[in-house]
Design brief:
With 102 residues, this protein is mostly beta strands. Helices cover 0% and strands 40% of the residues. The strands form 2 sheets. A 4-stranded antiparallel beta sheet has the order 1-2-3-4, with no helix packed on it. The chain has a 3-stranded antiparallel beta sheet with strand order 5-6-7, with no helix packed on it.
């Protein structure tokens, strides 16, 4: 099984589903067949959302939460609340459509 709870997610050009594992200190990549094909450990307990970015959409950005940590655990997770960038994952994101309000 997957440790943590699946939270924010995005897809890559191969149809894989990349998701933050809140309470799981990781990001997971799930294949279209439903198998976890990668798990990337993070220096934060509560990642909340993932998205691809960079000029080639080959960097994975991860938002994280600090407020979910009990006060006594915050020193153990000093990067909680930060925006993380993961390079070299070997995947390319799908461009998100722009929203144009009238």
């Amino acid at each position: 099984g997957i440790e943590g709870r699946v939270d924010g997610a995005t897809c890559d050009t191969d149809g894989n589903y990349w998701c933050a594992l809140v309470h799981g200190a990781a990001v997971a990549c799930i294949s279209p067949a439903g198998r976890m094909i990668e798990r990337i450990a993070l220096p934060v307990r509560h990642p909340t959302m993932v998205t691809f970015g960079g000029p080639r959409l080959d960097q994975l950005y991860v938002t994280t939460a600090r407020q979910l940590l009990p006060e006594g655990e915050r020193a153990a997770w000093p990067q909680a609340g930060a925006l993380l960038r993961i390079d070299g994952i070997g995947a390319t994101g799908v461009a998100e459509p722009f929203f144009g309000a009238p």
